[in-house]
Amino acid sequence: QVQLVESGGGLVQPGGSLRLSCAASGRSFSTYIMGWYRQAPGKGRERVASIDWTKRDIVYADSVKGRFTISRDSARNMLLLQMNTLRPGDTAIYCCNTIPAGSKYWGQGTQVTVSS
């Protein structure tokens, strides 16, 4: 069974940091473009960052540019997202997936809440 399992979310104060992890199992995603998505309450899903298999083609949404860093460890079949200088507007459920997103790969995600 192919699974993407996210972890690392939590409650953090504005200005704080979190590091999200996405562990893949059931197959290798080493040749896929991978991305982090998020969905805030009452809003649509937004892609916040993507990284290709060479790790050279990295794209960020304007809303997170300069604050978030995406990386991948192909040997461990993992995708990471370092989030710094978090804002209340970053509050959302964060999920990882391929790009374009594979409907069968959506997991539960990990909740990130930025609040004082």
Q: How are the SSEs placed, and which strands pair?
A:
Elements: E1 3-7, E2 10-12, E3 18-25, E4 34-39, E5 45-51, E6 58-60, E7 68-73, E8 78-83, E9 92-98, E10 110-114
Parallel strand pairs: 2-10
Antiparallel strand pairs: 1-3, 3-8, 4-5, 4-9, 5-6, 7-8, 9-10
Folded structure, characterized:
Helices cover 0% and strands 48% of the residues. With 116 residues, it is mostly beta strands. The strands form two sheets. A six-stranded mixed β-sheet has the order 2-10-9-4-5-6, with no helix packed on it. Strands 1-3-8-7 form a four-stranded antiparallel β-sheet, with no helix packed on it. Strand 7 (68-73) and strand 8 (78-83) form a beta hairpin. The radius of gyration is 13 Å and the shape is globular.
Element string (H = helix, E = strand): EEEEEEEEEE
What's the helical proportion of residues?
Answer: under 10%
Q: Would you tell me the overall average pLDDT?
A: 95
**Main sheet makeup:** 6 strands, mixed
Annotation field: number of helices: 0
* Principal-axis shape: globular
Portion of residues in beta strands equals over 45%
Key features of this structure:
116 residues; mainly beta; 6-stranded mixed sheet; globular
Summary of the model, kept short:
With 116 residues, the protein is mainly β. 0% of the residues lie in helices and 48% in strands.
